[in-house]
Amino acid sequence: NAGVTQTPKFQVLKTGQSMTLQCAQDMNHNSMYWYRQDPGMGLRLIYYSASEGTTDKGEVPNGYNVSRLNKREFSLRLESAAPSQTSVYFCASNLIETQYFGPGTRLLVL
Amino acid sequence: QKEVEQNSGPLSVPEGAIASLNCTYSDRGSQSFFWYRQYSGKSPELIMFIYSNGDKEDGRFTAQLNKASQYVSLLIRDSQPSDSATYLCAVISSNTGNQFYFGTGTSLTVIP
């Protein structure tokens, strides 16, 4: 039982490049989330998916897209990376109200 | 106004003392309240959750909720150096369903 897994662990991009962050959970949770964490800003919700087939915007959705591929997987795509998107990205899932976080992806945009 | 406010610290306490971490929230309809611990470079992990006014104890940790004052706190008794971490307060707002709102966290250092 791996819990919540994220790939990659670390990525360097140039401004304007695109990439997809992958997230998967094996706990049969309905809800999945993408957060970014920046110094002094705490965890901010980018997008979430309450169930397979649905997605909703969070606090900071601009510049991102998501796909809930199936119940297990929830991906985050940066279409044209900007330096302001340099951050640590966490995926999370929860069954009722307890969130379980993945190990995070550190993204540096030059 | 941010949904959840925390004093960023840093908070330093000697080993064996009680550490008190505080959090206020803006949405009076918030129903569920959580405390997460995050070690440097790691992901947040849930310590406790509380739904009702009053105290909830789990080992050395006690969460306290006062909905009238829109205030939730975490007490850590007999603090250990291994408790040194950032503590995040989170709430689920009544009008946003599944959305969690996190505070910016309080950095705690327990001095041996």
Features:
heterodimer, A: 110 residues, mainly beta, B: 112 residues, six-stranded mixed beta sheet, 0% helix
Brief overview:
The complex is a heterodimer of chains A (110) and B (112). Chain A is mostly beta strands and 110 residues long.
Q: What can you see in these coordinates?
A:
The complex is a heterodimer of chains A (about 110) and B (about 110). Helix content of chain A is about 0%, strand content about 55%. By secondary structure, chain A is mainly beta. In chain A, strands 2, 4, 5, 6, 9, 10 and 11 form a seven-stranded mixed β-sheet that branches. In chain A, β7 (about 65-70) and β8 form a beta hairpin. Chain A is globular, with a radius of gyration of 13 Å. By secondary structure, chain B is mostly beta strands. In chain B, the strands form two sheets. In chain B, strands 2, 4, 5, 9, 10 and 11 form a six-stranded mixed β-sheet that branches. In chain B, strands 1-3-8-7-6 form a five-stranded antiparallel β-sheet, with no helix packed on it. Chain B is globular, with a radius of gyration of 13 Å. The termini of chain B are far apart. The model of chain B has no long low-confidence stretch (mean pLDDT about 90). At the A-B interface, β4, β5 and β10 of A face β5, β9 and β10 of B.
